[in-house]
Amino acid sequence: MSLDEIRSRLRQFAAARDWEQFHTPKNLAMALSGEVGELTALFQWLTPEQSVVATHDPDRAAKIEDELADVLLYLVQLADVLGVDLLAAGEAKIARNETRFPVSPS
Amino acid sequence: MSLDEIRSRLRQFAAARDWEQFHTPKNLAMALSGEVGELTALFQWLTPEQSVVATHDPDRAAKIEDELADVLLYLVQLADVLGVDLLAAGEAKIARNETRFPVSPS
Amino acid sequence: MSLDEIRSRLRQFAAARDWEQFHTPKNLAMALSGEVGELTALFQWLTPEQSVVATHDPDRAAKIEDELADVLLYLVQLADVLGVDLLAAGEAKIARNETRFPVSPS
Amino acid sequence: MSLDEIRSRLRQFAAARDWEQFHTPKNLAMALSGEVGELTALFQWLTPEQSVVATHDPDRAAKIEDELADVLLYLVQLADVLGVDLLAAGEAKIARNETRFPVSPS
């Protein structure tokens, strides 16, 4: 499934439940923020080293995947209601970062 | 550019700058959280109605696209270092949500 | 109970459980971030007008108080481990804001 | 300056600028979230050990104090518009945590 297909599926999901009325950019930004908070909480007491192997524990892996998914889904919906092409925005930002942080000559 | 291509480009970007050492899941979760904070701040004083047309102002639209991109790029990197397939996780979550929130019969 | 007394009580709480080892500024910043995410989530689908009367519902009021408390407690602990006087920092910031945003003459 | 005095000063500050109209709980929760994002960003690339001494650098210390203050000020305003006594809520939560996480007998 591509990001475009996820966007379409989320549109249908919201339309079928008459939830589009709740999906203003303001509300979706808050929902995104809430899900990122839940994701962050999964790593808060781990050392950086423990965080690297966090998915080795199946229960924790399932929670992490679930929260990563929630973040992705709200991000896709937020970009969609704003009319922003998320992949194009991401590509443009990578290009800006490549100029902003040049590679040191070795 | 697909999400897979963005992931590859971000891997190359980090490797070329020797930044992989900083990209633990713990650090990337914090970076994601910081960017979502910046994104949220763009909508904090807008009414829901104003947020719907937020991208009509070109300056604000550029800032919003920039922050959406930052969120996407850290999300992709976080999933990558954790070995999570972001699109598969998103698809699985949509499927769970479709079961969890059945459409009311009309 | 004053903010100073809350800080003392939190120090005792952590010491009695040998949790001080987890209370690095980095970890506490993440914990604070997670709690703010939970607090934000309580308001995400409310209109601004509904948010004004959110505490009229006793169940929601209890959740809001609980999350506000969590945010306060992590904020106090974070300032404490960093050696920052939270009230002095707040007072200094108000003074800066009063200069930065002068009142319009009427 | 006590937390009560900070609350009074913030009320006057908002009233003098006619900003009370923007201070719905929904908006203030977003503002709080944005400030916590900025605070988190100050620690994102630090190791836990580096975060412990983060305030030893005067420039970084000033930024950290500034962000801690911003978080405190929005938290106080959010509790205020909701009619929640922040210190009482914090004290009640500590009491619940003391019951929830009993100290192990040694």
Automatic annotation (TrEMBL), chains A, B, C, D:
Which Pfam families does the record cross-reference, listed alphabetically? MazG-like (PF12643)
Record's InterPro entries?
dCTP_Pyrophosphatase, DCTPP
Q: Which GO terms describe its molecular function?
A: hydrolase activity
Which superkingdom, per the lineage? Bacteria
* Database matches in Gene3D superfamilies: MazG-like
Keywords attached to this Swiss-Prot or TrEMBL record, sorted alphabetically, are: Hydrolase
Hydrolase as a keyword of this entry, yes or no, is yes
Record's protein name: NTP pyrophosphatase (Non-canonical NTP hydrolase)
